[in-house]
Amino acid sequence: MHFIGCVHIDIFGMERLLAALHHLQPKKIAVEWPSDFTLSEIAELDFDWNEIDRMVEEKEEFSELPEDFLPLVKRQLFSSRYELRGSLRYAQQTGAEILPVDHPEITSILSIRQREKIEYTHSTYLPGFIDHLEEKPMIVDLISEYSKFVDLGYTSPLLLADRTWESIEDIEEEFGLTESLDADVERAEEELTSTFMAEREQHIAQGIRTSNSEVYVGGLLHSTAEVDEENEFHDWALAYNLLADLQPERSMLKDYSSLVVVGA
User: Fold this and answer.
1) Nearest CA to 77 among 128, 117, 20?
2) Which residues pair with 99 in a beta bridge?
């Protein structure tokens, strides 16, 4: 059993995940996605670059962005839900089976529009990135720099979160990309209780166990073995810990960067 820990907004996540799965060659893959989705519903959520181009052209919100940000935005859009879509593509290429194992209630709690084909989640992270750019003398490649910024999540997830929320209002005022998140955040904080999160981890672990999955693809924090008693975000047993009897291995998705074939 192997946990692949992902940062959900990894803009090279699709390429890294396909490289990881082809390296590990699992026949059954458990994915962090609500377990009430059918495989046909999951298959409908994949998309290609042509759909990204159409979305950027048609949606007014993207016309407000500086032109040099558009290639970055397209790359961000393409990485949307890469954990699910990358697993799906690997399964289509190899005949492997994918199984969604996340708690079905997570969709409504996080207001995730998971039944829409493409969701632009990166508007949440752009404010911190813009602040980050101000510390740099000159950035030629925004995509490369944003990838480095987001990769903080693999080593310092709380630092990435801090940079995000400290300046989230900036993007609302400057680009108008998001509505106020206050109500959603307040409601999510009320519903994402320790009790629910413990149930969620148990749900994920049970799904992995009963399906005999060889690989789990999901957020990095589900495969963090250590529990930080001072951080209440970690005051419940995680899926990795709950499956300790299986002696699971774990890696970070970023670890597979060297296996990505450029241009493939």
Assistant:
1) 117
2) 30
d(CA 254, CA 264): 18
**Structure token digits, residue 128:** 């911190």
Span 4-55, pLDDT tens digits? 999 888 989 999 999 999 999 999 999 999 999 998 988 888 888 888 888 8
pLDDT at 212: 96
Residue type at position 200: R
Residue 218 buriedness (CB in 10 A; 0-12 / 13-18 / 19+): buried
Q: Are 204 and 222 in contact (CB under 8 A)?
A: yes
Element (H or E) spanning 99, and its range? strand 97-102
Check pLDDT > 70 for residue 217: yes
Give the up-direction half-sphere exposure of residue 169: CA atoms within 13 A in the CB hemisphere. Answer: 2
Q: How far apart are CA 31 and CA 216, in angstroms?
A: 6
The Cβ of residue 12 has, within 10 Å, a number of other Cβ atoms equal to 21
pLDDT at res. 6: 92
Among 92, 77, 191, 195, which Cα is nearest to 143's?
77
Domain locations in the chain? 2-259
Q: How far from 84 is each of 92, 101, 217, CA to CA, in Å?
A: 12, 11, 8
d(C-alpha 111, C-alpha 204), whole Å: 19
Q: Is 5 helix (H, G, I), strand (E, B) or coil?
A: strand
| 12 in Cβ contact with 147 (< 8 Å) | yes
CA distance 102 to 218: 9
Element (H, E) at 118: none
Strands (E), the chain: 2-6, 28-34, 97-102, 215-219, 249-252
**What is the maximal distance between C-alpha atoms in the chain?**
53
Structural tokens at position 90: 């690997």
